[in-house]
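User: Please predict structures.

Assistant: First:
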Amino acid sequence: MDLEKTLAAELARAAHHAPRPAPDLRARIETGHRKRRRRGLGLSAAAAAAVVIGATSVVSVSLRETTPDPAPPLIAASATRPTSVPTSVSPSVSPSADWPLAEKTFPPIERVWPEAVHSLPGKLPNGRPYHPELFLDAHTVVATTLKDGHADKMDGLWAYDLRTRKARELVRVTPPPRTVITSSFISAGGGRLAWWTVRKDRGELIVDIWTAPSTGGAQRLVTSFPGVPRFGGIDLAIAGDKLVWSMWGKGGLHQVPFTGGRPQPLLRTAGYALVDWPWVGSPMPAYDKQTKGTIFGSLRNLETGQVRKTSVRAIGCSITWCLRQGWAVPRDGEGAMRALPGIPDAGSAHAPARDRFLVLSQLDGTARLRGQVLLDLKAHKIGALGVKPKADGSLSTWGVDYRMPGLFGFQKDGRWVVVNLDAIK
């Protein structure tokens, strides 16, 4: 457990202190330091090599062991293990409790989830680069555009229609002067879009939270407040007629109605972070150091009061699943453990997106990155992204994150590939 937590901590630290990638990766900027977006990070060859070389035994165990390390009695391991595994998994076949290991191949995601995977042009019809953010419905993608390609100069929210291949500007975004950070994600709900920015004001960092109608219209400032933690951002959600959020690495939830006003703390949420409204979790990711205990080992539903804890030893948990060294384990300890055919990316290492999806990096026989797969823990399916490492050994894809608003996207051959995670049944 110490080894696997060390590996997770090193990945998170490497991600946050990596050099600024290309503009399309939309790296976060905070007071002069270059930060990785929470959306995820394509593992670079250098970062991977540092982890693999520095902890060869950890990676070896994660990818190649055929028997899990000793686990608490609550974990029900698979009764039998196959003596051999197929070289690929048919999209019509659900693998057993143990998936093939990382060196095996899988069908492309377009075959596994044809109803959810869409190919989009690399630019809007007006020639501008854009970034897909979320699905408003089954046919409409909300995208952001950046002024001069700068990661923290978002200047527009657009609606792209998958049927007509036409786009229209929903909101003309105007960040305030001296903005240094813009939202990692756009939130949607109740007919509204919401996002946040951070600006410098007389040596202090100020958060501004904005909203606009999802059908289009003018941006409106809802609230402002000081006190951004040094990790540089917040997790924001729409909950009925109010906005709720928690600060990265700090904990405690706050709320404000859409009508505006001063932010108010939510009672009994100290030490908790927003996971997936109305679920909050503790302990939260520390980002700059190893988190003590299992990340989100304790969950609470703020609407019903339900509490979910786990006795599973793990790195981090979602509502249903916990991740441990090379395995996904049910939070309640009931049911079979599932072997992971690769290494979770830095975003996935905390908890699966939508409580079921992980992006895993696969290594070849020489411990070099050779590709990534999207894994669905609920439906027991795996699809290959089909993106090969670049000449420098890096992968220019994002991972999936437990805060993601239902869209997973990456660039391939000059086009966008977007996956509507909520369309996968």
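Second:
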Amino acid sequence: MKNNVNIKKLVLTFLIFGVSTFTGINSAEAVCKSGMLNPISDIRWSCSMPIILGGITVADVTSADGKSASRADKMGSSGSALCVCADQNILGVPRVGFSFAMNLVFRIGEAVKDPFCFPTLGFQINMGKWGAGGADQGRRGTGKNTFSYTHMISFLPTQILNLFIDSLCMQLSDTNSPFSILYMSEFMPQARSSELALILAPESILFANPVAQGYCMIDSALTTIELTDPIGYWCVGGHSIFPLSNHSLEVDYVDAASINIAKMIFQLSRTAQIFSCYGVPGLCSCFPTLMWNKREFRFQIAKPSADSFCRRMGKPSILWNTPNKNSALMKAGGEDNLLFMIWRRRDCCAL
């Protein structure tokens, strides 16, 4: 009898904790302001193009520089019409299909000033002082650096198209999951500490010099015409991906947020949590890679203000970062947390 009473007390304690935690959503203490993601108006579905089938562009779109977007994506895709997959066969017969490529919404990336703020869902979980430590308190750009928390989210509406492509390609990618929060920097100690971030990327010490930093100007110049330098993997436009902590030397918050999203993708690739489905090696199956390929990814700001185009990672913000990308710059009390749609190029052997 006594054990039953103790069990009931334990259950009641958990219920009270759950209610007190989630009633903190949108409470008076919360400073997170954002409306819930609208898949129709906030996502630029034209970013899925160009669509290439059998080496022929069947659907194209004008990129941000006013030119055809297919010229850049054809560089990594298979130029041949037919493809053969020996590792996926029926009764020992290799599968023959058509090479197929398009951009898919891979994940949603959030860069927020307020810990446990989720612009995708339009609310914040009140966790008290959790994550509020540090000299900059994770909120404002300082003369030395700008900090933001980052999240990666799998969003169910964007997975419907991915499931269709998986069936068309007769393979599974790493995108088949319903809505879930896959990564939160609030729980990652390396997000706050550049020293701990060295564990994931010890080579960052080699690139902490003016020569390596200067090389990033090549990537910055290429992004202005929607291309990406495949050699300088440590570069995100004119910025270095190192150190992998969420502290950025870029004072502008929107620019710093996009760099931190890129750092998150790099870390998840380095730890084999993101697979690559790009180019000829990805035709028959997606594969783990410890070295990311920047050409796979594009960003599109969805909130506070949806961008009209997808951008190469590291594209100079002076070309696209207008004040309405962050409404907090325009008026007091505006939304000050950013949501990025992460688009990834998908190559496969279809049918």
